[in-house]
């Protein structure tokens, strides 16, 4: 797509060599006006995300009805691996024209905070388009743990430093960051046991080989219902419909605590603001459409919708908070 599109408009008056002015009537002249969002999009939009299945892929596909709003296909391209870095690098190298977008969770700005030589600096690489959805974690413990509230768990951990174990997925996974944030704010010593994914960690928690875990509400729900795990709190700032009846960590022993996955749409950083605004309006319309909230909740996510500026502010606050956690916990690569 060219940077400008010819637009016909009346030229008005023309002055001859003799100084006479002649009205052009029906004649027109060509001028050039920025194309921007006036013509965008004119071809399919590639939505790059993580491997099929999971919150990233689901979010990308939940947004797919935006094709009708934009008049072009929305093509989900699953590029999993390296905690999201593979899909992030694809979009980072793409042309900033609105035709290659990234749909991913918050670990795309968390992982670079942990690396000594990160492949990109988030704020200089990606432009936030819209905050699509979020997924808080649930703090759960094995029934053998003598704690029925967040405050009791904190007291127990302080009384037995290094005796409690928590399970998590890979570095920068929300199950990891949520626990480290908890440790930092509560000033407790709880030992991390790292797993390749959430499933194996939950299995060891069910077997009593771990004492606690921060995991997704959907993964914990059946085990809470069966009594094999005890839920203490949800990690969102406000009570969540994904964990009905549970208090927040912040309200039950650790004021100011908040953690969870943030799923959004991002464009390469030099994408024209007019195109970002066009995408934002179309996606927000899809996310807030009747029935969308229920479809998100059925898959363990809360629909959000935001302006680009609101999303940028959320990311900035999260980066500032996590930078402190990474430093205090010594999580950065040597």
Strand content: 15-25%
Radius of gyration: 25 Å
Mean pLDDT: 88
The CATH superfamily label of the largest domain reads Bordetella uptake gene, domain 1
DSSP summary, beta strand count: 15
Low-confidence stretches: 1-35
Distance between the termini: 45 Å
CATH architecture field of the largest domain: 3-Layer(aba) Sandwich
- How helix-rich are the residues, as a percent range? 25-40%
Biggest sheet strand order reads 6-5-7-14-8-15
Which fold name corresponds to the CATH topology of the largest domain? D-Maltodextrin-Binding Protein, domain 2
Tell me about the largest β-sheet: 6 strands, mixed
Strand and helix order: EEEEHEHHEHEHHEEHEHEHEHEEHHEH
CATH class of the largest domain: Alpha Beta
Put simply, the count of helices is: 13
> Given the helix and strand composition, which structural class is it?
alpha/beta
Q: What gross morphology would you assign?
A: globular
Would you write up a description of this structure?
The chain contains 13 helices and 15 strands. A hairpin with a 5-residue loop joins strand 2 and strand 3 (21-23). The chain starts with a strand and ends in a 5-residue tail after the last helix. The strands form four sheets. Strands 6-5-7-14-8-15 form a six-stranded mixed β-sheet. A five-stranded mixed β-sheet has the order 11-10-12-9-13. A two-stranded antiparallel sheet has the order 1-4. It folds into three domains: 4-34, no CATH class; 45-135 and 261-329, D-Maltodextrin-Binding Protein, domain 2, CATH 3.40.190.150; 137-252, Periplasmic binding protein-like II (D-Maltodextrin-Binding Protein, domain 2, 3-Layer(aba) Sandwich), CATH 3.40.190.10. The chain has helices at 36-39, 54-62, 66-70, 85-92, 107-114, 122-125, 150-159, 174-186, 198-206, 217-226, 273-287, 292-298, 308-329; strands spanning 4-10, 13-15, 21-23, 28-34, 45-49, 74-78, 100-104, 126-135, 137-141, 165-168, 191-194, 212-216, 230-234, 261-268, 302-303. It is an alpha/beta fold and 334 residues long.
